[in-house]
Design brief:
It contains eleven helices and twelve strands. It has a single domain, classed as TIM Barrel (Alpha-Beta Barrel). It has 357 residues and is an alpha/beta fold. Helices cover 36% and strands 17% of the residues. Residues 1-12 have low confidence and may be disordered. The strands form two sheets. An eight-stranded parallel barrel has the order 1-4-5-8-9-10-11-12, surrounded by eight helices. Strands 6-7 form a two-stranded antiparallel sheet. The protein binds ligand PBG and zinc ion. Ligand PBG binds next to helix 6. Zinc ion binds next to loops.
Length: 357
């Protein structure tokens, strides 16, 4: 039996597997050499260059992360990520309406709760910050106009700041699965289109898929942070979301940056567990991982250009060292060229402003 699950549309400019094995041959089979082929012909005018562009950024494939914080009155600028703010729930709908007007159709919601405990109970509370935020947005915007993606993890909600439950000083895999499943179900129940587990626990996709199906959320997609590396580029995010681990680090669950084959195993497992979309994170220093995943798997592929990537560009730009708009477009286009269908980026709003100019 064929169960038609809704799949996200692949855009027409969706990156295809690369085949660099072809030889430069003339029709008679001889190898073609200068002066007959002049590759500069392909770059001779602006119009030709644009016509022959292989990778493009379309706004529909961008996802903009949004931070919503419980218990604040106004916007709070994020020091570690210049230009971005944490929002109170009361300002969220207007902010998202502005995004939609600019052409951004998808957000990734992060919640900052007012209460943390050892078990992340505020993460699956039906009146938690993300649940209320999703309901408020869903009242205003339907799924055709706005795709709501929610981050499913515990680190903003646990007193210890880890992405799972503690057993002694270790992060316990299996007891975390239930919690992640509860969080995902509560997000789906509030109206999320896509839940995005980022805890890097083994079996999290299966646990979430089973729980969603059991609760009647068969059409809720899972975008798994499949190949999520333990990266020093997350530091600005952790101060923005107050989610830094209070002891130790995340090396026992997130991938080691030296490894590529292991990332393919992570993605493969998530696909077998039922992920609809898989993700590589970070993006810019991990373009090889994106390319490997694109060539190996048919699933839609997301790349998350993380807070540290954003901060590096902003810092250089604030010092007047680079042309910010040009650098943003180059970096994001290169992530597409590497093979990402979807890009999660803090620059999404700026890209819309640049391309709408
Ligand atoms: C939480 C989470 C993190 C990010 C997304 N979800 C931080 C972490 O794993 O410590 C990083 C996002 C960024 O740096 O932009 N699991
Ligand atoms: Zn986490």
């Amino acid at each position: 039996m064929h169960d038609p699950q809704p799949q996200p549309q692949r855009s027409s400019s969706s990156p295809q597997p690369l085949d660099l094995s072809m030889k430069v041959m003339d029709v008679d089979g001889s190898v073609s050499l200068f002066p007959s082929p002049r590759l500069r012909r392909l770059r001779r005018s602006n119009a030709i260059r644009h016509m022959l562009k292989e990778s493009r950024i379309d706004l529909e494939s961008l996802v903009y992360p949004v931070f919503v914080q419980d218990g604040i009155r106004g916007k709070e600028p994020i020091q570690s990520m210049p230009g971005l703010s944490r929002l109170p729930l009361s300002m969220l709908v207007d902010e998202v309406r502005d995004l939609i007007d600019l052409g951004i159709r998808a957000i990734l919601l992060f919640g900052i709760p007012s209460r943390k405990d050892e078990y992340a109970s505020s993460a699956y509370d039906d009146s938690g910050i993300v649940q209320r935020a999703v309901s408020a947005l869903r009242k205003e915007f339907n799924s055709d106009d706005l795709t709501i993606v929610t981050d499913v993890c515990t680190c903003q909600y646990t007193s210890h700041g880890h992405c799972g439950m503690l057993k002694g000083n270790r992060i316990d895999n299996d007891s975390t699965l239930d919690i992640l499943a509860k969080i995902a179900v509560s997000h789906a129940n509030a109206g999320a289109d896509i839940v995005a587990p980022s805890a890097m626990m083994d079996g999290q996709v299966k646990a979430i898929r089973d729980a969603l199906d059991d609760h009647g959320f068969k059409d809720t997609l899972i975008m798994s942070y499949s190949a999520k590396y333990s990266s020093s580029l997350y530091t600005p995010f952790r101060s923005a979301a107050d989610s830094a681990p209070r002891f130790g680090d995340r090396m026992s669950y997130q991938l080691y940056y030296a490894n590529a084959r292991e990332a393919m195993r992570e993605i493969e497992q998530d696909i077998l567990e039922g992920a609809d979309i898989v993700m590589v994170k970070p993006a810019i220093a991990y373009l090889d991982i994106i390319r490997l995943a694109r060539d190996r798997f048919k699933h839609p592929l997301a790349a998350y250009s993380v807070s540290g990537e954003y901060a590096l560009v902003k810092a250089a730009s604030l010092q007047g060292l680079i042309d910010e708009d040009a650098v943003i477009m180059e970096l994001l286009t290169c992530i597409r060229r590497a093979g990402a269908d979807i890009i999660i980026t803090y620059f999404a709003k700026q890209v819309a402003e640049i391309t709408n100019k």
